[in-house]
Each structure stands twice: as C-alpha cells, then as structure tokens.
Amino acid sequence: MISVVNKEIIRRLYFKQQKSIRWIARELKMSRKTVRKALVDSDEPKYNLTRPKPKPVTSHIRPIIKQWLQEEKQYPTKQRYTAR
Fold this sequence. Notes:
Blueprint: H1 4-16, H2 21-28, H3 32-40, H4 56-71
C-alpha cells in the first residue's frame, strides 16, 4: 500500500516536474503499475457525510416558500420574487 506522502511525491513529480512514469518508478523503487494507481487516485480526498444534517428550521418553512413561488407565477414579471 502506498502512503499518502508517497502519493503526493508521485503527483508532484509527474504533474509539476513533468517526469515520466517510468522515471518515477525507477527513482522510487516501485512498479510502474503502482505509480499509475497513485496517479489515478490523485483526486484530493473529500469528506462525505454519512447522512445529511437535519434542517429543523427550513423543514417547516419550505412548504410555505414553495407555495409562494407557485402563486407568484401568475404575477407580472416585475412583481415576482427573485428566487427561481
């Protein structure tokens, strides 16, 4: 398994210093396949919530706002709300 530090080194060598996969593999003493895997996984890690956070205030108001927006469709353009 490649450490995060090694992945960062591989990314820097490949993208910033324009080194070839073969050169990186030779210098870091790992296979070209491993270097390619590190480059494919080069996306920055993102934090994903397991479930969305509750919205106690907006959950009660949301139906009212939807009703307002439905009613305002009959108004002239200049008298409408700015939300779309």
